[in-house]
Amino acid sequence: MLTSRSGSSESRRSSLRTSPNERPPSSVPGNTILSERRRKRRDDSLEGEVSPAPTQRAAEPVASLKNLHISLERNGVRSDVLKGIDLEIGRGEIVGIVGESGSGKSVMTMSMMKLLPESSRPHIDGEIRAAGHDMSAISPKALRELRRHRIGVVFQDPMSSLNPTMHVGSQITEKSGSAEESIRLMEAVGIPEPRRRYRSYPHELSGGQRQRAMIAMAVAGDPELIIADEPTTALDVTVQAQVLALLKQTQQRLGCSVVMVTHDLGVAGQIADRIVVMNAGEIVEQGPSHQILSAPKADYTKRLLAARLSLDVPGPPPAPGVTSKGSR
Fold first, then answer.
1. Residues facing 1 on adjacent strands
2. Which of 35, 184, 226, 283 could be a cystine partner for 4, CB 3.0 to 4.6 Å?
3. Is residue 84 scored above 60 in pLDDT?
4. Are 220 and 181 in contact (CB under 8 A)?
5. DSSP state, residue 311
6. CB 264 within 8 A of CB 97
7. What's the whole-model pTM score?
């Protein structure tokens, strides 16, 4: 975890201009994840924008969607992707968004950050609020600061999200504000030898380490919300479990909310307090994780559960040299 550090605004601006080849600090003090200095810098950067007071933010959901309809265009054909979505993300909760490919789950979460591709000419009808802002009326300045400080994103493929020509630590520093803070973050998310890895390029890290670096970038601004879009899809089972545990620990330390997008009910069930099941652009069922996994009501949810892979083999293992039924 990370500690806050004191320093002038000029030194913070200088640290943002740190060259990727600059040697990181030789010593790193102890850690705490919550950083009052960074939180103050985040709030100061939003000064002058219309934003709710802290007490009001604490009372309202960190994100909400009301009667949200979104259509996108592809090859000249417009399709309805979301059809009347109503959803609230409470403060401090972990919500799993589950559905097969094409269900609209990623479009829904990316709309919270206004990250839908302009090439698809999105048409949006309904209300989207995130971190106290109406996303249809947010100014470009407030949007940049919201993405930098209040909402963090962990994408599915870190290799395509990280800049291959920059050191990993330098990319984290663009959000954290200093090399020293970045090394703290890298240590907090479990990247080994963070001082040395600070100067590694993305291709020099393993898949799990790259995803940990993405999580470090996501938490660098002390966010109110972290959106994790299929963060474990490209990882093996062991690393997948480690990344899920890290997301859970990060949420507990920061007290932020997490939206976990996945096609796997089992993955969502490992960390989510609540599961939202989507199909064909609609929410078909939502509720506490234990309820969705043990007593689903919607037929689609039941089919998703039935489709999970099982390694259970009935009966005792066959004797050596004997082929069991169904092994071919």
1. none
2. 35
3. yes
4. yes
5. -
6. no
7. 0.74
